[in-house]
Amino acid sequence: MLWPALLTGPLLWAAFFPLDLGPLAFVALVPWLTLVRAPTTRRRRYLFAYLGGLAFFLLALQWIRVAHPMMYGSWLALALACPVFWCVSLFVLRRIDRLGRVPFALSVPVVWVAAEYARAHFPTGFSFLQGTGFFQPVGFGWYFLGYTQHAALPLIQIADVGGVYAVSFLVAAVNGAVFEKCVRVPAVRRWLKWDAEPRPTLARIVPATAGVAALVGGALLYGFKALDHTPFVDGPRVAAIQGSVPQLDKSKKGDLLFDTYYGLFDKAVAIAPRPDLVVWPETCCPFDWCQLGDGVKADEPDAPFLEWGNKNLAALYGRHKPLNTLYGLNGLVWEGGRKWRYNSAVLLDAAGRPAGRYDKMHLVPFGEYVPFRETFPFMQTFTPYKDDYSCRPGEHWTRFPLSTGGRTFTFGCVICYEDSDPYLARQYVRADPVDFLVNISNDGWFDGTEEHEQHLAICRFRAVEARRSIVRAVNMGVSCVIDPDGRVVALPAETVAASVKTEGVVSAAVPLNDGVRGSWYAAWGDWLPAACWALVAAGVVGAAFVRRR
Predict the structure, then answer these.
(1) How far apart (Å, rounded) are the C-alpha atoms in residues 87 and 499?
(2) H or E stretch including 64?
(3) Selection from 315, 370, 312 nearest residue 341 by Cα
(4) N or C: which terminus of the chain has fewer CB atoms within 10 Å of its end residue's CB?
(5) At CB < 8 A and 24+ separation, what contacts does 375-379 make?
C-alpha cells in the first residue's frame, strides 16, 4: 500500500505556518518513509515519493502566487522542482537500507540533512565553488525540518553548534525511530500488507532508539544551560519602521509610499528616548542612492543626475539631523560606461555623511534578476516586471559603524531572503565580529499571507547561529528585535500575528551579547551537512559492494 506516503505532504505542511503545529514535524515523515521498504515497482515507488513532496510544496509555497499573476508560474515551477530532492533521498535511503544494519534513526537524519543542504545551495551556491568563477549564492533554503521548532527555544539553541541543520537532524532522527517502532506493530504491517520481517533486528533498533532519546535529551539540556546566562547588555537604541504598503503602490513610488514612510520616519524620531539608529525596510526609501564607480571621473555625462538623486535623499535625511539612518533603497552606480543597479542599504551618519553601503549578494531569481535572460529571452515572462530590472550582486560584507554614547558599535546587514542563507549571516561574526545584525526586507509582495510569519521563524535561527541580536525592518511585517537566544523581544503590535499587515515603529535597545564574539557554527560552518554527505557516500558505496557480493 503506497497511499500512506501521501499523508506526509499535509502533515508536514501543518507543522509550518499558517497552522504552526511544530510537534507534528516529529512524525510527519513516518508515512512517507514506508516507501523505502514497501513491496512495489520502482516506478510506483518514486511516483508516490514525488507526489508526497509535491503535495507538501504546493501547499507550503502557495503564498508565492500572491505576489503577481506571473508568479503562478514561479510557484508551480518551484513546487515541481523541490520534490526531486525527496526522490533522491528515497533512492539513497533504499541503498543504505540494503546493508540491513543501519537503523532509520541514523540513516533518515543523515540523508535528510544532506538533501536539505543540497536544496539550499543547488546548483551554484556550494562553498567549494568559491574561487572557481562559478560560485553564486543561490538555492531555496526555506522549509527545513528544523524551522518547525522556531518557538521551542531550549531545542533550537544547538543551532549555535550545527546551525538549523542540527535541529533538522534531531527531528528527522525522531521520525526514523518512530517509523521503526510503528512497522513492528502487527496491525500496522497488516494494514500496509507487508509480509517480510522488519529489519534491522530488534537488537539493533533498541540501542538506536535509546540513542535518539539521549540525543534529544542532550540537546534540551544544552539548550536550558545556554539560556541560563547573565542578562544581555543594552546596546544602542534602534527604531525599525514598518509600513503596510502593497507592492503595486510601492513600485509606483507614489503618494502612499511617500506619505507612509515619511510619517513613520517622523514618528520614529519623536520617540523618547530618541533612537540612535532608524532603520528603513528594503527599497522603501523613495529615492535612489546614486554614486560614481571607483576611478570614474566626476565629469562623466551622468554625474549631474547622480548629484541630483543624492540631494533628494539628503533633504529627506536633513529633516531630523543629527541622526544615524539606514535606508533601504536602489543603489545606482555609474561604472564601465553603464549604470549598474543594486539592492542596497546605505547608512548616513549623524553628520549626514555616507558611512557605508551594503549591496545584496544573494539575489532572488525572477524577482531581482532573470536567469539566462540573454540566452533565453522568454524567461522574462516569468517576472512581475515588463522591463529588465536585473540587479548586480554585491561582493562585500559591509561593517556599518554606529557611534553613540562614547562608543562605536558595528552592525552587518542582510537584505530580504538573505536571512534564509546561514552562510551569509555567519560571515559577520567569523572575523572582525559585529555587535548586532540588521535584516531589511520588503514582504509587501505577499499581502498578509503566512510568508510573513515563516520569514520571521527563519530569521530567528540566524540570531542563535551567530549569537547576535537581529533588528528587522520589514514592509508589511514582521518587524521586530530578536535577541541572541532567538527570542522576539520587541514588535510593532502585541503579537506576531497582529504585527502582520500593520503600520508601526519597533523601538528598543539592542540586546548585546558582550563577551561572546561568535559561536561554533560561525567558526566551523556547515560541518554537519558535510559529515552527512560523507556518510551518504560511504553508505551508497557500501551498499553497492554488498550488492555485488
Answers:
(1) 38
(2) none
(3) 370
(4) C
(5) none
